[in-house]
Every structure is written in structure tokens, then in C-alpha cells.
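Just curious: can you write a single protein's sequence together with how it folds?
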Amino acid sequence: MHVSHPHTAYSRTARSRTTRPRGKGSFLLTASAALAVTAALLTTPPAGATESTAAAEVSPHAAQTIDNFGASGAWWVNDLKNFDPEVRARLAGLLFSKDGLALSSYRYNIGGGGTGVAYAPRAPEDFLRPDGGYDWSKDEAGRYFLHAAAEYGVKDLIGFVNSAPARWTTNGKSCGGHLKAENERDFAKYIADVTGHFAKQGVRLDYISPFNEPTNSFDSCGQEGMLVDVGQRDDIVRALGAEQRARHQKATVIADESTSTVKFNSEVPQWISQPGTARYVSRLAHHTYDNPGDADRARVYETARAAGIPSWSTEICCFGKGGTGWAQEYDPTIDGGLNLSRIIYKDLATAHDSAFQWWVALSEMTGGDPHARNDEGWNDGLIYYDPAYATNGNQTLYFTKRYYALGQYSKFVRPGAALHNVTGVPDGVEVSAYHRTGTWVVVVNNHNATGTALNLHFNSGTPVRARQAVRTSAGENWARVAKPSVSGGTMSATLAPRSITTYVLDRKGHGGSAPTGALVGGQSGKCLTADASGAAIAGCTGAAGQAWSYDARGTLQGANGYLTAAGSDLTTSAAYSGADTQRWLLNSNGQIVNEASGRCLDVSGQATADGSKVILYSCSGGANEAWTRR
């Protein structure tokens, strides 16, 4: 975990946890046993189920293509090197196999040697010898799980750095210093040597992240970490990118792993715009620790569109107390699982990230009894182990609902799937839909304490039958449950209370209808109108000039032509040009986002009078940027 001030307490907590006794009622689960923990099929609506006759709608236009779902191998591998080989092999299956999470990315920590780090599990070994040569026998358990990920066929293998080796930092430590400018090329060559070595071993890293949370000093030295000022980030990216290309190595750069979306949106434009930098960056990476609202997430998309590079959500953990904000708590229950699923949903549906990666796959931070929610531990892992394993011999693995929540996505939403936003869902419900190779995958979060009816209409690629339904709830883990009914392009189901359900449906055809209706402003209650002179709101009359059709290309076509962005203004064009200025995303929160700029349809000045101008503006999350189709 990487948050500056709260992190200090987090590190101290980690040290104190090593003295905790193990909890009672331990149970050891293999991968197959974990999957067998299911409940009976739900064949009738739950008692108290709410009824809904209106159908939510799947957008006919795909928002982005999903690259991967993953987790990090930092820290815990330094403990797992002491575990029995059978336990390590079982864990690899739980993370990478199709019976486990089937992760499609894995983050391998390229350690900086741990010099000065006070807590041993967070002091990973590096490969450098004092004479400048290499000892490739170091980091045995880290290498084991990296090789396991490769052998299981994990699509994207990512090497990420918390700190450069201490010999190249300003304070001679792996925490709290800067990378010295005169050693940037040495650092780049070291990373290239590491990736080259693994490639010779048959493990080809796809991406390299050369610095992590670069505004955090980590000078408490509870873990590795180094400062990288904005002005140095482009220098490191260019040095590493040039070194990788010179060696014809596969790995490309992801950056800058900002702690928060706020820092990402303010700092990325400064360094990515420096000459010769962007060509080396294949993905922009942010963390989600500031508990961002819809406005900040939407600006991630704006930042990414301005750079012309897709964004990834590459780290989050440690939320709690019933919400998705930073809080100390250990919660293995469905509450934590649903909050994780909400974060995934928002990062993909509003920030339009192409990947989601959890922080550490394993943790020892249970706070005591690994089965009981408490305020002493941390929600940093998916699976937990006993911090006192070295003295009591307990190598039990303890599962949380977060493990199963991530699997509701990672097992079914495979790389290459296209996300389609869903609008008009019932209160307390979040729905995302993905299509790939003739299949729809629909993931549904029901935060309501009662059963909730869902009718979901597909406007592109008609679903012809339901293949399976898998659910995680308070009493179920990846349980196979009753399939939804499918008729006339609409899927109907009753969602169990407090649950995450994944539906897999066969998909027929690639076309579909273009839904048509008025676009009504959430603040004004008035309808969008536009012509060649601009766009405005007016009282809804049902006239043809207020009807907009939305098709699979992402266009909004009205009586006067295609809605087109012209800088911050809007116009209509008689012909479709294929440009991003004529393509729009209908976000599930009501935002209508232009694909060229990543900015929202906005009623200027929050005005509500007839004739008030509608423009493009950075998404604020305000009611003047919320639209519904009528």
C-alpha cells in the first residue's frame, strides 16, 4: 500500500501484527475446495424482492477494450519463500488457473534491495552484486510466482519498481530518496538487464513501470519507495524506453502510477508532453486512493484522451468502514467484496480504464482472527496468511469476499472484451456489460438489502440464450445459480440481496437497433436541441428536433444531423466523418462524453432557461452534465 501519511501507521501496524496469535477455527482450502463453497440454486425470487418493469439498456457502442485484471506480487512473496512447496503451488493455482482467479495480469516487484527498510517482508532483494555483476538466485519466491504466472499463460506480465537500488539514490537507501540524475541511464540499463534475463528464462515481461507513487517519499522506511519529481519522470521514461528499444526487448513503459486520480490528472500532462516521451509509453497508470468521485474519474479519461494513450487503474486497497475511502479495517465479508466490485465498476465505466489491478494478492494483516471483521487489520489482501507462521507452523490460507468479487470479473471478462455502458438501472444496482467472440458477459452488483428485479435490454448483438450465472453473496462463493430468462433482446433476472452476479450469454450478430429519444437534462428537466449554429436546451415538446438516435458507431443523430464537437462548442454535421469529434459515450451516471476530448455535454453556467447554451466542459459530476433518455 502506498499512501503517504496513513501509510506510516500502516507500516507500524504490519510490524506489530507479527506477534498476534493465530485465529481459531482455521481451515485449509485448495483451489478446488475453494470453488466448491457454493450455495443452492436460487429458483424463485427472494422474499421481499422489489419489482421493476422498466428495462435498463446496454449501449450499442463499445466504450473501451479491456486489457486485463490483475494483482500485485509485492511483499508477501518474501514470507511465502518459507512456505511448503505444496502451499505455494496451490496458491499459484488460486491466482492464475481457470479454477482460481484466472488473472490476466500479474505485477512482479523488481526489488531495490531493501536497504534501510525496517520491515523485512517489505525489503525485497535486488539482483545487483557489490562488484556490479548479477546474482540471479536472489528473490527466489518472487521469481517462483512470476514463472508460475507465465506457465499458466497470464497474458500481461508487469515488472514494477518501488525504488531503484540504493547505490543510485540520493540517501543511499531504498526508501526516502531520489534517483540521482547521473544514474538514470544506469537504472535503465539495470531494468533492461533484468527483463533481458527473464526473457532468456522464457518469461517475457510485457510492461515495465519504473517508479511508483512518485510524490510519496516513503521516508518512514516501512517499505521501499523513492521520490520522482515531475521534471524527472520524462527523463526516466525516455532513458528506459530507449534502452528497451535499443535491445529490441518486448516490454514497454507504463507510468506514472500516481497515488490518486487528482495527481494523475494534474501531473501526467506535464511530463507526457515533453518531447520524445509519449512514444515510449503504452499505458498511463493511476492509483485510486483518493476515493474519487465521478468528476475525477471522468477526468482520467480526459487526460488519457489528450495524451492518446489508454489508462489503467493499477492499485487500490485498504478501504473500509462501509465505504470505498481509506480506512483501517479488516473485513472478509460481502461488504468488502461489494465495495471492491463498486470500485472496479466505476474505474471501468466512468474513468474508462482498460485494466484493473488490485494491490497485494496476499497479506498477513488480519488483525487477529482471520474470520472476524475488526479494526486492527487492513483490507490490503485478497487471501490472508498467519503473520506468526514462522513460530506456530500455521500455513493456512484464509479467503475474503474480495477474492471472489475480483473473480466475478477476472474469470469471465477476458482480455479483448469490449465494455458497453449500461443506463437506466434500478437504484442500488450497478451493471456493466462486455462482449467478446459471440458472448455477452454481464456483471451486476446489487447493494440493496432486498432482492431486486433487473430487466436488461441489449441494443447491439442480441443475446439468444443464457449459458451460466455465477454469484457471490454473504453465503455463496462463485455459486452456480439459476440462469436469467432471455426474450426479445431482453435479459430478466431477480438479483439476490447484497450480491455480485455474473451472467454469460450467447450473442448473435454484431448489429442492433439505434435507440432513439429525447435527451433530458438532469438539472433543467429540458431537452437537448442542436443545429449548425450550436446546441441548447428547450422545454420538451416531443418534436422531431428533440429526438436523438444513438448507434453502434457512437454517433448522436438528430433531425439536423450528427452532433459534432467543435472545440468547446457544438454543432451538427450532415455527414458522418468517422472522427472522434462525432462519437460519444453515454456513461452510466448520465454523463455524455465526447471521445475526441473526454469532456462532457454541459449546460453552460448551470442555467435552466430555454435557449441556455450547451457546451463541452471538463466533467464535473454536476447535475448540469447529467442526461437521461426519454
Notes: The first strand starts at residue 56 and ends at 58. The radius of gyration is 25 Å. The chain has a mean pLDDT of 91.
